[in-house]
UniProtKB/TrEMBL annotation:
Keyword set, alphabetical order: FAD, Flavoprotein, Monooxygenase, Oxidoreductase
Every FAD-binding domain range: 143-386
Species of provenance: Heterodermia speciosa
PANTHER family: FAD-BINDING DOMAIN-CONTAINING PROTEIN (PTHR47178:SF5), MONOOXYGENASE, FAD-BINDING (PTHR47178)
Gene Ontology MF annotations: FAD binding; monooxygenase activity
Alphabetized Pfam families for the sequence: FAD_binding_3
Identification of the protein by name: FAD-binding domain-containing protein
Amino acid sequence: MDPSTRKPILISGGGLASLLLGQSLLRSGIPFLIFESDSSISFRAQGYRLRLSTEGLDAIESVLGPEGFQTFWDRCGKTGGGGSVVSIDAITGSESAKNESDAPAGAARPQMPLEPLSSRDGKTVGISRGDMRKTFLEGCEPHIRWSHRVTGYELTPSGVYAVFADGTKSVEGELLVGGDGIYSKIARQLSQGKLKTYDTGARGIHGQAPTTAFKGLGEGVWRLTDDSNPNGRVFVITNVRPGDMDDPNMQFGWTMGAQPGLIRAPNDDYALIGTPAAQIAKSLSANWHPRLKPLFDEMIESEAAFWKITCSTPSGVPEWTNEPRVTSIGDAVHSMTPAGGIGANTAVRDSALLGTLLAEAGGCKEGVTDAYEKRMRVYASDAVRKSYGMAKSQFGVLIDENSKTV
């Protein structure tokens, strides 16, 4: 069929999974349109640095091809340090037990499990969410419609319309893919409410500081853990890459997490950025070891931001009646806690799988979405269970079917 006359694949949301799916469709010559609610890619902050697993890198490489992946790979940071997180007692500054088997007898709180970090060449590979999104955007620009928030869909005898917040509709597509994150209206409509995202109650703070503030740590992936607070555990994860620690004009980021109740944004407004978040981070780390204090004392206060920790149903991705013309990818179908860094890696696997199935079928043919959903449920359910299991240990969260949803 002439690509200029066939109905496009419609994609709701312009995040990582959606853009990578767009890259796959570009290579296959399948027409598509992406509808993003933001007015541009720079409309809002892009969030924290992402760690890429072997599965995530393989998925990205399969979509971008050798040349495109080399460009992506060159933009990634590669950190040594033995391929596993190094845990530091935030109060004493010394290394502590890395997993439960190393914990001393009678320990008051369980130790957090050791996470394997290396993915290629014995290195921990990471890239900022913003840089990753910009890379996936390249070439997709003509296919994006900014300031279009999708709130639902309407099926036709041979296709589907995306319905926008203002009541207007898109052109008719042959498939609609909901890649619009944890608040996805597409996912809820498709699953008839079976897809749920729970608020775990735990909160975190992202921060930035000049790279010189990280010299006391040195190269590696570090987890700073404080169990001295009677109200619960506080910890920070940071990735210190080589080569930049002497440049005060460069910045590294860190992510602070805490058990429910320890971090609260003023008036529960988690859209606040800057001083309110910075002050809480500095307060929680006030008695930490001098080796670690520069990360907070020298932080760029304007860059501090709160975040909520959410998770899909811990038992895994539920089943729903398959609709051949609608499906979902990424956080819209399997939101995960940040524990283990699994979420983004699972999302790009969705993009690679669905893109491959569409390419093999030459478009949205009977059975494509069913095959995608059956295979996705297997690896995504496993990922959600792992992410939730680690979050129970790290954040002290506990959710079930009766917990609050977002």
